[in-house]
Amino acid sequence: MKFQDKTVVITGAANGIGRGLAEAYAASGARVIVSDVHEEQGKLAANTLKDQGFHAVFIPCDVRKEEEIKRLMNQAAQYGGTIDILINNAGISRWKSPYELTVDEWDDVINTNARSCFLATREAAVHMKKGGNGGAVVNISSTRSIMSEPNSEAYAASKGAIVALSHAMAVSLGPDEIRVNCISPGWIETGDYEELRSEDHKQHPAGRVGIPADIAKACFYFTDPDNDFVTGSHLVVDGGMTRKMIYEP
């Protein structure tokens, strides 16, 4: 129960990786704030945790909006007494040819994925600093920050920005004992794992496609109070997939 009584805010926690993170931290004793723009799914995620005897609450937030982020952090601090850990996980993608991608679509991806990390970290840091015990932030980027497929410009740019933002804020917030790190997940399956093909697993040197628990373990490392020397780091968690050279036959 390493995170007993720690207050953890997780954005984009209604589904996928975010929900897996919420479940993992709750099971480790934390008070979890499940936040998402999708209220019905977010409430279901939080209520499911509470039904299991864990501490959880749902607070809606559209991370594209500064005022909603401020409200989220204020309510989270009221619920938990302070904010100890923030996981910036909310994000969207838009796969569209650069010839067709509009400025509004570009801005929506950048604002949801990258700008929200800055705003949420800034607002959470206010409460972390006030609490006097520092805190830990983990920004969820993507292996798309270091490699790409066609028609992924907005998503790739947003995820690359998150990596750079993470080390910048680690330097700025270090004097307040606030650590900021970044994780770039690879293929993390959040659907029906049993439907994956053997070929899907074989393309990973680790021998399998990832699951949300793999990202939770990385978050645990970065947010463990004992790891106070680890900040400004970028960890790729992809089963070695981005290190495997591929040749056309």
UniProtKB/TrEMBL annotation:
Signal peptide: none annotated. It holds the Pfam family adh_short_C2. One of its GO terms (molecular function) is glucose 1-dehydrogenase [NAD(P)+] activity. GO terms for biological process: bile acid metabolic process. SUPFAM superfamilies: NAD(P)-binding Rossmann-fold domains. Keywords: Oxidoreductase. Its EC number is 1.1.1.47. Belongs to the short-chain dehydrogenases/reductases (SDR) family. NCBIfam families: PRK07231.1 (NF005559). This is Glucose 1-dehydrogenase. It comes from Paenibacillus lautus (Bacillus lautus).
